[in-house]
TrEMBL record:
Pfam family, one: Fic
Gene3D superfamilies registered for this protein in UniProt: Fido-like domain (1.10.3290.10)
The Fido domain, residue ranges: 134-283
Protein name (record): Fic family protein
InterPro entries: Fido (IPR003812), Fido-like_dom_sf (IPR036597), Fido_containing (IPR040198)
Disordered as annotated region, ranges: 1-21
Superkingdom per UniProt: Bacteria
Length: 397
């Protein structure tokens, strides 16, 4: 269906510093994109877009109904998978060992802490959406969580930008930029309009989430973190509309599999191609939900595999830890001790036996903060992302 395109507007450019090339230093005018107001616009997909949308809703509902209620750990697993893939799109990739150390509270790399912050931000935004329409305060709170590990970025977090930003081109000016978002003075009004659209209940749910994401990325309301918060907005709208209540659909892995296609679809949206972007997100939901079902089955089979390997005594601390590993794939001595309800010495012995059996691996050898991980679960994170990527390339190119 017809959707309004962004408007181009010529603006004066006033650089803060005279840096960069001669062209940077002499730049006086720029062209910014002004997204349309969408709060009151209707959207009804037709033809192949409508069919893709229907398939997506069915796929997500099947994932939620078939696995969300009896395999609760799948919720945390998929949430972490979505956050990690979203971070990788921004070239933030710590690897699962470092990521596990960050989860366990051990000393970890900046990238690992950033990935953990993405998990926390997504969790906060989705949880808030479960209580009602997403608000400006919800977005700002999620942004503060996301930026917290970076000292310099954290100082400006939790507020909309007050400077002109741009994507691509020069480091110093918007010259040769791929996209120049609206000026900062328009951001509050545009965000109010966007959240009014996101808070409606009369729109096709996947289409609403897709358009809201594309509109958010076009407004680019923050200095940094727009991609990760914008992708989290998709999951939050699905939760707000009730399509999900326990699981997070790992659609960022589809975008990660072909980032050039993802960015091209966003560009198409800005030219009025809402149908193209809705179809793209709908197909992403189908492929990621299908792969997530396979991961759910793999996770469900793990407890028996662990018992077969470790052969714990009935009623032992080993057996208790194995029974709780799906919910707690990362352990430190405090978490393990709460689970076993025994002495620290007995808990350490149980952890050592499960490590010797190959069920656990030690991620951090620090005496003050030793961290163990169920490697089968963490490697399944990579397996899920790879499976989604393969399906994406085969089906979507």
């Amino acid at each position: 269906m017809k959707w309004p395109s962004h408007r181009a507007e010529d603006r004066a450019w006033k650089p803060r510093h005279r840096q960069g090339s001669r062209d940077d230093r002499t730049l006086e005018r720029i062209v910014v994109a002004i997204p349309p107001r969408i709060a009151d616009l209707d959207y009804d997909p037709t033809g192949k877009v409508a069919r893709a949308h229907e398939d997506a809703v069915i796929a997500v509902a099947r994932l939620e109904a078939g696995h969300g209620q009896y395999l609760a750990p799948l919720g945390d697993f998929l949430l972490r998978s979505e956050s990690v893939a979203s971070s990788k799109i921004e070239h933030i990739d710590a690897g699962w060992r470092a990521f596990g150390k960050a989860i366990g509270g051990a000393k970890a790399s900046d990238e690992a802490r950033s990935q953990l912050a993405a998990v926390q931000a997504l969790t906060a935004l989705v949880d808030a959406a479960g209580s009602g329409p997403i608000t400006i305060d919800d977005l700002l709170a999620a942004h503060r969580l996301l930026m917290a590990p970076d000292y310099y970025a954290a100082r400006d977090s939790g507020s909309f930008r007050d400077v002109q930003n741009w994507i691509g081109g020069s480091d110093y000016t918007p010259i040769n930029a791929l996209y120049v978002p609206p000026p900062p003075e328009l951001v509050p009004e545009l965000m109010d309009d966007l959240l009014a659209f996101a808070g409606r209940r009369d729109l096709p749910v996947l289409a609403q989430a897709a358009i809201a994401h594309a509109q958010f990325e076009s407004i680019h309301p923050f200095v940094d973190g727009n991609g990760r918060i914008g992708r989290a907005l998709i999951s939050a709208i699905l939760r707000f509309r009730g399509l999900t209540s326990r699981v997070t659909v790992p659609m960022a892995s589809v975008m990660l599999a072909n980032t050039m296609r993802y960015f091209a679809e966003l560009t198409s949206y800005r030219a009025g191609g809402a149908d193209d972007f809705v179809e793209y997100v709908a197909l992403a939901a189908v492929h990621s939900s299908s792969a997530a079902v396979d991961s759910a089955r793999a996770l469900a089979a793990l407890p028996q595999q662990w018992r077969d390997i470790a052969r714990p005594r009935s009623g032992s601390s080993d057996e208790t830890l194995l029974a709780n590993l799906l919910d707690n794939p990362i352990l430190n001595i405090d978490i393990a001790g709460r689970l076993t309800g025994t002495t620290e010495a007995s808990t350490y012995r149980a952890l050592d036996r499960l490590t010797a059996a190959g069920v656990l691996v030690v991620l951090s050898e620090s005496k003050r903060n030793r961290v163990w991980a169920a490697t089968d679960i963490l490697t399944e994170l990579d397996a899920l992302s790879s499976a989604i990527g393969k399906r994406t390339v085969e089906a979507m190119g």
